[in-house]
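User: We ran a pulldown and think these components assemble together. Before we commit to crystallization trials, I'd like a predicted model of the whole complex to look at. Sequences follow.
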Amino acid sequence: MEFSIRRVNALFKKEIKDLGKNMNILLMCTLPIIFSIIYSKMLGGNTSIGHPEKIDILIMCLGMNLVLVCSFVIAMLIAEEKEKNTLRTLMLSAVSPWEFLAGKALITLLVSVIINVAMFFIVGVNIQYLGQYILLTTLVIFSMIGIGAVIGIIAPNQMATGVVGMPVLMIFYMMPLFAEMNKTITKISEFLPNYNLSLLLKNVVKGTPLPRGYTFSISLILLWILIAAIAFAYTYNKKGLDR
Amino acid sequence: MDNIICVKNVRKDFKETKALKNLTFNVEKGEIFGFLGPSGAGKTTTIKLLTSQLIPTSGEVKVFGKDVYSNKIDLVKNIGVLSDNSGMYDRLSVLDNLMLFANINCVPKKNILEILEIVGMSESIKKEAKKLSKGMKQRLMIARAVLHKPKLLFLDEPTASLDPGTTLEIHKLLRKLNKEGTTIFLTTHNMQEADKLCDRVAFLNDGEIVEIGNPKSLKLKYTNDDIKVILRDESKKIMVKNDTEGACKIKAWMDSRQLLAIHSMEPSLEKIFLNLTGREL
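Assistant: Here's a predicted model for the assembly, 524 residues in total across the polymer chains.
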């Protein structure tokens, strides 16, 4: 396997230039920010009992970012390259599949972290939690990027990412939202990385000491990174990037 | 001379379709090799096999003396490919498109400007690729394929959508690259282009090579016995046979100072292909 930092850097620069002109992706990236503004204006001022606290608002917006941006952006970027034959051109220009995917993952990671931090400030959570927040959310971003890359490999074009990615949207976005409504949904949600992220963030804000309340969730998030990596390796070996 | 491409007994099947049947040919280092045939003859399949985009059903494909599939990484570093499935980044400018491939291949920026000058796109460097005309897009693709001065260049119908002026410039560029050591594998429908550019051509029909050789030699091989004679009086054109009787007639016209010109009747590459296969290109 060949891997060149120079080539990944060239691809990353290209992604940055292209991102500024890609209206589909830009719109997807602005949605979590717009919703964080709306939610914080609607609900953020009132933190009394029966009203969501700031961390809950942030968790709602995070769910959207993790699914819409972390998973769907990388899936759409990969599918677009397949659709427009630029992937084939890159593969015939000494770019290895791993370099290509690293370029895509880096831009998705950068955008996702920026949006997460922006939402943190928009919602107005106490800045003392910023470090732990970035660390924990970034861990989950890795697993969601892996899942998005799998969708991108399976989908033959950008349109198909919606169809292929719909179960991901339903499971990862909707389940944690409705976790409080039904015991079965709660049980399933307990095994999802983003639901565990919300538990972790709540513990951070509550000031729960380590390792109580953290061990299971962090282990599960790390397991999801591993699952996503295995799923990606399996799909890649089965379907390839450009066959 | 060294062979840069060696194809031996290659067969490629797509389910029920036999795209290539027992294909065997070599391309020598430093030559411009034309691969000619009608649509569906197997030209693009051959390019895909040679550039490791497809695996043959059977047979051996060697490029730079090595098996294509086990040396894919080395291969792609030394080749340039322009095919019908080459793509470009629509939202990026001409310069940014080329900058990406220049950065990937460690090519200095001045080479980009040079190549843009040659393909006549110096004025369009800031233009978004999606705003380019079809011909301009093709020029950009050619610029991208030759940017890193590859040892071996694969061109699938490179001048199909270009105007005659640009086609001429592209031919000049290809000759220049060839002089600098780039071997060129070219597929084209344009027989004049093949005749002008190629050192050797191969005619492909239904997945098989029906003839291979130097364009001039092929024309001599398939020439007929007719000679066209143009006489001074009323610029009369007369066909005579290339035999003793014809020679006597020509001598008589020469003696009487009536002869203006003599032309041999070599067939065009297109006619040779038609004679060999019964199909038009």
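DSSP finds ten helices and 13 strands in chain B. That may be worth checking against your pulldown data before setting up trials.

User: Thanks, that helps.
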